[in-house]
Amino acid sequence: MQKPRRASKTGKKTKPAARRVTRTRTVNLQASVKMRAAQVDRELGRTLGRLRDFPAHGGVSPPTRLLAAMAHSLLAGGKRLRPVICIESCVAAGGHAPAAFRSACALEMVHTYSLIHDDLPAMDDDDLRRGQPTCHKAFDEATAILAGDGLLTDAFLVLAQAPRNPLRQVTELAAAAGSFGMVGGQMDDILAEGQDPAQVELEAIHRRKTGRLFVASSVLGGLCAGAGDREIAALRTYGAALGFAFQVWDDVLDVVDTTGKGGKGVGRDEKHDKATYVRRHGLDGARFLAHQAADRAVHALKPFGKRGAVLAALARYAVERDH
Ligand code: IPE
Ligand code: IPE
Ligand code: MG
Ligand code: MG
Ligand code: MG
Questions:
Q1: Is the pLDDT of residue 57 over 80?
Q2: Domain map of the chain by residue range?
Q3: Cross-strand pairs, 133
């Protein structure tokens, strides 16, 4: 039976202290994540600005139309989850946030490129992204392809300048984004359209097309802090579980996001006959599996103790978000 709420001296009902503390902590964590996302926005603006007069270009700038298309997608908003994970992983491993800024920007550039190409008519054929017309709608298809190519390639220009472990970071991100990772997963995703892949294959698609970039996000953060093998291994487990949970939840939102907050439309997966967790397990089954994976992500953070609190909150957010 629930205990009755205590009454204060004035007779007003008060919330139990434990719940108050938890709520305060949650609000603080949400505020830290918001603050980090705002930092990422600022750094992305600066990074694009620097591309105009990057020393290696010998004073030659990219074409204005190309930069405008890259900026259209990169600066359109977005949750900035991957760069925030990168920065918070750096902090959890004992580093300073600014040490991770270049890596964080590189991750968001790769992620944004993947969205531009994912939305193309030859792929998911979407008109809306981050609440705005997709890159090929705002510009044209050829420009959108090139804007994606530009963001992907320039991301490595940025990452090569990371202050710590640049070569290991470049290797990690290239392996996560390329044919072994995200691009491979996107191919599998297309091949699975109209199919009913076995559970194990479906999991492999989600782990590659989305999970690998989350792994890179947490691992790059650790590398920015000079983390040791044990911490890097923990961050790898965290990123993999979180990335998987994130994509399963994305499948759920594609069905239930009636708020329009996602800024990318709904019911797209069904239209394209996509192999998703909702299709295989139903809405409740998919929700359950996403929460289970988020629990695994939180569990992996044990070696970081209290320093892992924001990363844990991000894992919970991934499967509670409404967009
Ligand atoms: C969308 O990613 C693509 C997936 C991998 C599901 P996000 O939901 O992180 O998109 P933004 O960055 O917030 O726009
Ligand atoms: C995209 O998955 C994964 C990427 C690598 C971009 P989705 O196709 O489900 O992403 P949304 O729903 O369009 O954002
Ligand atoms: Mg897709
Ligand atoms: Mg898509
Ligand atoms: Mg989706």
A1: no
A2: 26-52+63-318
A3: 128
